[in-house]
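**User:** Everyone, produce a chain:

**Assistant:**
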Amino acid sequence: MELTPSWIVILTEWLGVIAVAWLLSATPRFRKQTVGFRYARRDGIVALTVGGVLVLIGWIFASSSPGKMLWELIRLPEPARSLNPLFILAMISLVITLAALFLRGQPLKGAGWNTTNLRLGIQTGLALALLTIFLRNRVMDVLNGLSREEIAYLLVVLGIALAEETIFRGYVQMRLCWWLGERQGVLATAALNTLWRLPLLLASGAYIVLWLNLVIMIGQAILSGWLMQKTGSVLTTILYRTTSLWMNFYT
């Protein structure tokens, strides 16, 4: 992978997403509902604990023999097979997070699925998705129709984005922001998200572009956290992250 073009594409995409989200948030119709937690410290500690457990599971999953056996047992079809480990880890982590949510008797809006912000999340997410396709210069690829391989890849990255954003931007970040403050909550969540993904990055053996990929992971996590705070809906980050990941199919 060429470093310079990658940086140009990534930075252009991020700047475009920030600009569009900022402009949309300035419109009079842009109104979100904030979800709070009665026991901020308790819920924050639970979120940190869940995040820490998921990071530990990620490292075990990437480095242990049983984890690697699971990669082979559940195999995605080509061309999404390279995403196999991340998809499986995301699904396992989502089940654990939802279990933690329901054991405390909390509704789905406590993981970013607030129906009041649903329309806002969809509108903003679709705008960012279309912008990403345009900035990646893939408009004609999409308009010309999608192959079975492209659709399969899209569904896999949708599953990854849905799980990852519900876990980190929804469950973890909402609680940490309510407890620690917005900036600290976004940064702490981004750190947990990066540590969760890091073992799979190391296991891939792509050491030549390790630092580039690590910076991209951190930047994406912070950007997604900021978008979540703007709209109050994980649908925004799910739609944007799905499109951004899907565009890798064409690289």
Summary: The radius of gyration is 18 Å. Residues 35-250 form one domain.
